[in-house]
Amino acid sequence: MLKKVILYTDSKSPECEEIINFLSEQELSLDIRDIRTQPLTRAQIAALLRHFNLEHFLNPESRLYKKNRLDDQMPKRSEIYDMMAEDGELMRTPIIVSGRLMTVGCNHHKIMEMLQLKSNGSGGTEEANGSRNEMKRNGTNGGHKGRAGGE
C-alpha cells in the first residue's frame, strides 16, 4: 500500500513544481491541491494549520504580508486565517502532509525524513519497484494532525 501524501501547491511557483516532480518520482499516493486555482476556505485553513506556529506558513514575499507588516507584529490567529482565505499567496507553499506529519518548504532532506524515504542516488527510493505513484487533483481538505516543520 502506498503512503498517502497531500501536497498543497501554488501553480505559479517554480519551487512547488520542483517538489511535485521530486515527489512524483517516489512510491507515494500523491494528492496535489493547487491553492491558486482552488483556494482554501477559512475553515479548511484553520483545520490544516490548527495549533501549528503560523509563522512557518506565512509567505514574507506576499502582498498582504508586506501591507500588514507581519514581520513587525503578528495579528491574532483568527485574523491570519481570514487574511489567508482572502489571499492565498499569504500562505507559504508547498505544504506536504502525510498522516499526522506536516512540513512546509522545499527542503528535500526534511521531506525525505518526514516521509521516511531513502535515496538511492537516482531520485527514487530503495523500496521503489518501478510502479508510478497515484496522482489526483482535487480541492477537498482532509483532517491533519502532527507537527509542522519549515526549512
If you had to describe this structure to a student in words, what would you say it looks like?
Helix 2 (42-49) packs across helix 4 (77-86). The chain has five helices and five strands; from the N terminus they run E-H-E-H-H-H-E-E-H-E. A five-stranded mixed beta sheet has the order 4-3-1-2-5, covered by helices on one side. By secondary structure, the chain is α/β, with parallel strands linked by helices. Mean pLDDT is 83; it is low at 121-148. It has a single domain (3-137), classed as 3-Layer(aba) Sandwich (Glutaredoxin).
* Unreliably modeled segments: 121-148
State the CATH class: Alpha Beta
Computed CA radius of gyration, to the nearest angstrom: 15 Å
- Which CATH architecture is right? 3-Layer(aba) Sandwich
Number of individual domains? 1
Number of strands: 5
How many helices? The count is 5
Strand fraction band? Answer: 15-25%
> What is the string of SSEs from the N terminus onward?
EHEHHHEEHE
| Basic shape | elongated
Mean pLDDT: 83
Q: Strand order, biggest sheet?
A: 4-3-1-2-5
Class computed from helices, strands and strand pairing: alpha/beta
CATH topology: Glutaredoxin
Distance between the termini: 29 Å
CATH superfamily: Glutaredoxin
